[in-house]
Amino acid sequence: MVDDEDIAQFLPSDSPLVRQSEAVRLQAAKGRVRAEKIDSIIKANIIQAVTMGLIPVPLLDVLALTHIQFKMLDELVKLYDIRYTKIERSVVRAFILGSLPVATVTGLSSVLKVMPGVGSFIGGASVSVSAGALTYATGKVFARHFELGGTLDDFNLEKANRQFRQEFRHGKQVAQELVTTQALTFTAEFKEDA
Fold first, then answer.
1. pTM higher than 0.70 for the full model?
2. Coiled coil where (predicted)?
3. What is the residue range of 122's domain?
4. What pLDDT is attached to residue 24?
5. Which has the closest alpha carbon to 54: 110, 97, 99?
6. Is residue 39 part of a domain?
7. Distance in angstroms (rounded) separating the CA atoms of residues 61 and 56
8. Number of domains making up the chain
């Protein structure tokens, strides 16, 4: 099989075909770098959201989650160099707060923390996974929209909510894996220190 580099060696370096090939290769490399940055932003915020679930004060964790999600979206907006006005911020707010059924489950799990012992443990674990899934889904929905050339001006809440529900299901798996990985890492470090 012959690839671009094999063909390019037979063409003059200033050939339009060579320049076009280089431009495509450069775009692909930029796309990979941006995809890695997006994944890094989302993962870092999932970890913060999962950790936030361990806050023992009911409902303070939900407030912290909202802050984490706004911070993540600020990072994504900067990465895509999208302007972010007060009006557009209200679209983001409507999306984040509009995920009410999911946020309600997170809020109810947060309230479980009031129960001493088992309630605190179950509530914390449940909030951690839900918070991670919410953050994952929110990040993926906005990143996909921005990647397709969208801005906050043309953000469609209805379409985004459908995508959000799909991403939330996958996000629960991602968050659970992160919780498990973090717990195993913590346990291993604890054993080393003992």
1. yes
2. none
3. 57-189
4. 73
5. 110
6. no
7. 8
8. 1
